Amino acid sequence: MDTHRVDIEVVDADEPVGAPDDRDVIAAGQRRPRRSTPLARVIGVAAAVAAALVLVVPGAGSRWLLVGTTVPGAHGHRPAIDRLQTVPLPRASAPSRALPSVTQPLVALDTTPLAMTAVANVIYAALPNRLVEIDGNAALITRSVPAPVESSPILTYDALGRVLWLVTADQAIAFDIDLRLISTVHLAGPTSGAAAWAGRLYLGTPTGLDYLTPQASASRQLVAARIVSAVTLDAARQRLLVAVGAGPVQIDAVNFDGALHPGALVAVGQPTIAIAGNAIWVGGFGADFQLVQLDQNSLAQSKADPLPEITAPGVVISGGVNDIWIRGANGGLSCLNGATGVLLQSWPAVNGPVSEFYTVLPGGVGRLVVNERCLG
Known about the structure:
Layout: E1 3-11, H1 39-46, E2 54-56, E3 63-73, E4 76-88, E5 103-108, E6 115-119, E7 122-127, E8 130-135, E9 140-146, E10 154-158, E11 163-167, E12 171-175, E13 181-186, E14 194-197, E15 200-205, E16 208-212, E17 220-224, E18 228-234, E19 239-244, E20 249-255, E21 260-261, E22 265-266, E23 269-276, E24 279-285, E25 291-294, E26 301-305, H2 308-311, E27 315-319, E28 323-328, E29 333-337, E30 343-347, E31 354-355, E32 358-361, E33 364-368
Parallel strand pairs: 1-2
Antiparallel strand pairs: 1-3, 3-4, 5-33, 6-7, 7-8, 8-9, 10-11, 11-12, 12-13, 14-15, 15-16, 16-17, 18-19, 19-20, 20-21, 20-22, 23-24, 24-25, 25-26, 27-28, 28-29, 29-30, 31-32, 32-33
């Protein structure tokens, strides 16, 4: 007799009936709902179906292999349960943060990008003396234009105004989404952070917070203050968050009309501010560094977590839709739950900025391979 093997799954009989599982199929390849089925009925069905079945055994928690035999019939061989043997198979392990943490190279470039941002799977990368557009889905360079890119440029996208800003040491250059040049505005001094929204570019400067538009001939001051060392858009609450000072820094909220709302004092230098959902986090550098979470309304400190494995001597952070990205000063990238700060996944070999799961790699751009917990 020929041996016919049927791979089945043993599940708990008390498990509620749920959505069909990919393995719960009938012979024609159609899905059917998982349901509690007596063992005798399974054996009867197996005589007519040569496919994956569900065997429900109370209290079971692993997968099993059902081995039967085929017997001759009027129309040739058909499966029948002549002999039943159950062999335990290894239990599938639960996903963990120990899953492979790698990246998929996407596009090779002739040099490593100095800055990068992504908008709906379109990647903009600043290279020395040029700006390139990459289709993240097709993994192709779709545009390349000359641009006066120097060391430490800033790329930021205005989602409402549909303007891409490239900020260099002495210029703010506006492009449309097809990388056509709109305007160039010369800056009076250095900048230390930028954010764009609704047709305006906001810049941190040594004397406060400035703004400009693509049509402006120069920037104007919105808030006079000490050095503004970081600027982040808080679009959900229609405001900007700024770090005032060089360290320690005060995190203030600024309305688009310039109204200032003071917040918490955080003992870090070189600060970065990240927003993920309703959560606000502050990172930076310092001997007693802690990753700090702020209350979204009062901006008072609500949580501080030491992260010794990734913080010495500090971190650069950025926000996603749900989670925050942490880059250690000595290398390595981590994804943290935006609400709780729980570490979800790490990429020890990744050192570049992240936007929409895309990251800068040596000599190109890549896509992070993520587990199901890091939602970005």
